[in-house]
Predict the structure.
Amino acid sequence: MFSTGQKIVCINDQFEPWVYDLYRALPKKDKVYTVRAIAPGRSQPKFSLDDDANLQLTDAEFDILLLLQELKNPDDPHSSVKQELGFRSERFAPLEEDEEEVEAYAEDGATKEEEELATLPR
């Protein structure tokens, strides 16, 4: 599972056509994001038209939704609870960093590759 402040990467940026009408900002595949909040929400909505041709939400599945620091979206127009539109957690994976490289950089400010280049004869 994810936690607030965690770096994650988008692994699925394929959206249904209706999403483009509701969201202002969508994640892009392989781009890194920061988890701003985790909340229960709805996904896989089903819509119908009433007699006056108004779009009505008729069904949806429970899901865990992520809000991302880098993307802001409007509130869900089909909810009586004021809640920003989020993204299904399945669209993301934890960002995996090479721990040795991170540790080497943290110790002296240079990556392992930079250290190896510095030892090569000139």
Summary: Helices lie at 19-22, 99-108, 112-119.
